[in-house]
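chain below, 325 aa
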Amino acid sequence: MTDPNVERKLVEIIRIISESEKPMGARLIADEMHNRGYAIGERAVRYHLRILDERGFTEKHGYIGRTITERGKKELSDALISDRLGFIITKIEELIYRTDYDLDTGEGNVIVNMSYIDKDDFDNATDIIRYAIGHGASISPKVGILEEGSSDHDIYVPEGKIAIATVCSITVDGLLLKNGIPTTPAFGGLMQMENNRPEGFVDLISYSGTSIDPIKIFMRRKATSILQAMDTGCGKMLANMREIPASAAENAALLLQRASEKDISGHICIGEPGMDVFYAPVQRGKVGILVMAGINAVAAVEEAGIRIETHPVSSVMEYRKMELL
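prediction:
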């Protein structure tokens, strides 16, 4: 599991190495970490450096020390940077508030992920998305299609591109809130699938400890095996977990059942009070709700080798304007 406190230290170590004109050793890094307010020893620094080496963010030069790689520079520019910590959860909370989809009338907005693809690849991409939706890899069978030049929903589609909107699983949080159930997105992660059923998280990132969406991080790492999961029943898909008050669990279960009848579902599981949900920790007095990520269908397109640019938890869209593929 990925601890947000560990991630912050990793990013600070990368930052220190990047600021040096020569390789840096663990002792010098530990001294600088102390200067920046981190209580971490030389031995712990070595542990963190091994993680950075494994991720390809740093390179070891014998006993001289480490330097930052090009991959590390990219991670530093858009990952867990301290002056942006909390940005994604703030954006998510705003979109949750803007979700007003009414299960009874079928009117209102849902949260969507936006993906942009070349027009020439659109047919192949939609075939894969349709296949993924048919295998339950998304939370809704509906998608939104925006042609080039479109500026609907405050979304601009560049020339030569088509935008595909998929319903984001954070929509579930919007439905819960709209029906009086407070919710807090807790973790995004990789879910191991066995025999077409969730087996357990193999990696987690906290929404509160990251500056970019955890689901996007896993997509960038190319950590999924969604096509394999659909073909064989075993593989890694994207999922997330939110927490609600334990006293609201019964009402949440009824609401989610109603939502599934309106085509918003996706391997939903409600845990027990204070108990882990598929290895994701849950706070005392809370219950966890697991939902498969709506972006799985798009991630499958990327796995197939089709170039696609995806922005999770991007905007809101009127659900009635979305359509079946």
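DSSP finds eleven helices and twelve strands in the chain. Residues 81-85 have pLDDT under 50 and may be disordered.
thats it, cya
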